[in-house]
Amino acid sequence: MTPHEDMDALMLENTELRARLEEAEDTLRAIRLGEVDALVSEGPEGPQVFILQSSDAESNRFRSDILGKVSDAVIAVDEERRLIYMNAAAERQYGVTASQVLGQPASSMIDSRWFAPQDQDEYQTTLTETGVWRGRNIHIKLDGTVVHVESTVSRLFGPDGTPTGRLAVIRDITGHKEAEEALRENQARLQLTLESARIGDWDLDLKADRSRRSLLHDQLFGYREPVAQWGFKQFLHHVHPDDRDEVKRRFRESVENATDWQVECRIVWPNGTIHWIDMHGSIFRNEQGDPVRMLGVILDITARKKAEEALRENEALFSTIIDQAPGGVYVVD
Known about the structure:
By secondary structure, the chain is an alpha+beta fold. It folds into 2 domains: about 5-175, 2-Layer Sandwich (Beta-Lactamase), CATH 3.30.450.20; about 200-310, Beta-Lactamase (2-Layer Sandwich), CATH 3.30.450. It contains 11 helices and 13 strands. It has helices at about 5-30, 55-60, 65, 90-95, 100, 115-130, 175-195, 215-220, 230-240, 240-255, 300-325, and strands at about 40-45, 45-50, 75-80, 85, 110-115, 130-140, 145-155, 165-170, 200-205, 210-215, 260-270, 275-285, 290-300. The strands form 3 sheets. Strands 4-3-8-7-6-5 form a 6-stranded antiparallel β-sheet. It has a 5-stranded antiparallel β-sheet with strand order 10-9-13-12-11, sandwiched between helices. A hairpin with a 4-residue loop joins strand 9 (about 200-205) and strand 10 (about 210-215).
């Protein structure tokens, strides 16, 4: 596989991982309703919201016909942190049965770990002040398996307002974390490949005309430090005036037809020197099919262009010598 093919493969893998992460985030947001006594169940007719009214919460919150439908693990503890409810998803997630652990301390089933000491303090403070906490931490199961989870924990109250325990809806995001790690590793590999080849990368928002770029991208335009604002408008400002119309025409055709963009042109650095660049970009569409992003790379080809120009000059000089020679010209091996 050539360096360019390897780079293209890495960029494709990087895009696919981003899409997977965005899809996972959308799913997580769907179950965060902002109500202490609200649960979301994914049924055959789509998401269903179950509200546990305060006066009936004590009798309704553990009904299996509601909580049993929730695909995430749901557990409840009393004020002494003893397990008083777990749904089938929790049994599967933690590898236990309700009959084994109900009445036991939650710590007998889950060893909760925090990423930092202050995270646990924030959990306690938020739950006390608002009645609801949402966040991430680590659960270690009985068999030693480490699980990354995202949870919504709500305080439970009896009909008279007396605290009775806590209800937790827990989603296993271990796969999500692994995808994040794979994405970071992939980005590192991609960046190493690009930097080794002296290739800058960029990601342009076509609607806002703003882009994310690597430092090398900006350096290829003559800047030592990252430029604060950059879009197609700023790019055109750096293109040599004699090349600007052609560059603009090709870019417009690429966006209108949702096709790849490729152009070689001259650019003018802030110090006035002229350089040649080769740019490639690929269009990405939204769900409606509208072009919304262009992801691409930039390569400095000044040395190649100078070599091509030198070759042309030498060929022209040789041709002149041949034409003006009074006699024959012989080439001897």
